[in-house]
């Protein structure tokens, strides 16, 4: 056993902090699962048909996939995909769409820039996902959506961005109602960037004090207006689990409605697949949140 180095974050040394924020160290089946996201998404498209594609911004990446419900004035779930802020395409995260469409909701997956393509900053990415949600709010009538029933969900780094969306001051930032988002699911995310900044992720994210403060959702609970579901798996890194527990505790202390779900025996990449079934941990919870049971 190698000798433990100087403490970097709480009782963790640098090697332990790096491992804590690299889920590959905790999920040896990650390649198979990520590949399965893509193949299962292809299967969903075979059954539901190709999504409608809409631009929400001026650059090519600023577009979203819409899997439409078969009824008008339906609620909407906007799903923010993960990928360590570095990778991921909307087309490979269609696999939960069938749950929502069959239950009578629209499912929207936006594409957005990878951090390495926007100057190693998370701030443009946060702006993009906010604008994607704002576009959905302003254009819901175009696809038969209910602008008063928009929900946001996200996984991994997408859960971080979803939490950023949920703690947005909509009136100040985008001239929209404060309660633009009516509920959220954040699965296996990071909600305070202080320890993330100390990890090996700082090799590709140019963290600054401004970024850490602005994009740490746990520090902006005053702007949260929606009930929140938080979730993580017991086979994720202990630090990811702590992030979920601490965010839930902060929400409770602030008097915000929160439900914390712990998936026993699931790792970081397995838990999001429970969003595909109305009987899965996440699928059941989100349908209840959207009143689609």
Q: Can you tell me about this structure?
A:
This protein is α/β, with parallel strands linked by helices. It has one domain: Rossmann fold. Helices cover 34% and strands 18% of the residues. It has ten helices and ten strands. The chain has an eight-stranded mixed sheet, with helices on both faces. It has a two-stranded antiparallel ribbon with strand order 1-2. The longest helix has 19 residues, at 30-48.
Task: Tell me the helix content.
Answer: 25-40%
Count of domains = 1
Briefly note the CATH topology name. Answer: Rossmann fold
Overall average residue pLDDT:
97
| Biggest beta sheet summary | 8 strands, mixed
Apparent shape: globular
Give the CA-CA distance, first to last residue.
51 Å
Strand content: 15-25%
Order of helices and strands: EEHHEEEHEHEHHEHHEHEH
CATH level-4 homologous superfamily: Alpha/Beta hydrolase fold, catalytic domain
Number of strands: 10
Q: Specify the structural class.
A: alpha/beta
CATH classification class: Alpha Beta
Total of DSSP H or I helical runs spanning 4+ residues: 10
Radius of gyration: 18 Å
Please identify, by name, the CATH architecture.
Answer: 3-Layer(aba) Sandwich
Q: Report strand order across the widest sheet.
A: 3-4-6-5-7-8-9-10
């Amino acid at each position: 056993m190698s000798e433990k180095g100087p403490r970097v974050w709480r009782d963790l040394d640098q090697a332990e902090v790096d491992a804590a924020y690299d889920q590959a160290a905790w999920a040896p089946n990650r390649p198979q699962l990520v590949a399965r996201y893509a193949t299962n998404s292809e299967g969903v498209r075979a059954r539901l048909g190709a999504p409608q594609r809409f631009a929400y911004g001026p650059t090519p990446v600023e577009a979203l996939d819409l899997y439409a419900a078969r009824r008008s004035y339906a609620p909407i779930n906007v799903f923010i995909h993960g990928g360590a802020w570095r990778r991921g395409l909307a087309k490979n995260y269609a696999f939960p769409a069938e749950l929502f469409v069959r239950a009578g909701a629209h499912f929207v997956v936006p594409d957005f820039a990878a951090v390495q393509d926007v100057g190693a900053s998370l701030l443009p990415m946060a702006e993009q996902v906010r604008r994607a949600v704002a576009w959905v709010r302003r254009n819901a009538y175009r696809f038969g959506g209910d602008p008063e029933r928009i929900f946001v969900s996200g996984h991994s780094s997408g859960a971080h961005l979803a939490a950023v969306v949920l703690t947005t001051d909509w009136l100040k930032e985008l001239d929209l109602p404060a309660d633009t988002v009516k509920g959220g699911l954040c699965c296996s995310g990071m909600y305070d960037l202080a320890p993330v900044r100390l990890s090996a992720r700082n090799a590709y994210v140019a963290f600054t004090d401004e970024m850490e403060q602005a994009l740490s959702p746990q520090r902006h609970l005053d702007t949260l207006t929606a009930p929140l579901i938080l979730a993580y798996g017991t086979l994720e890194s202990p630090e990811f689990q702590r992030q979920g527990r601490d965010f839930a505790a902060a929400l409770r202390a602030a008097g915000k409605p929160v439900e914390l779900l712990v998936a026993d025996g699931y790792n970081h990449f397995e838990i999001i697949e429970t969003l595909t079934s109305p009987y899965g941990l996440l699928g059941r919870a989100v349908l209840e949140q959207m009143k689609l049971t």
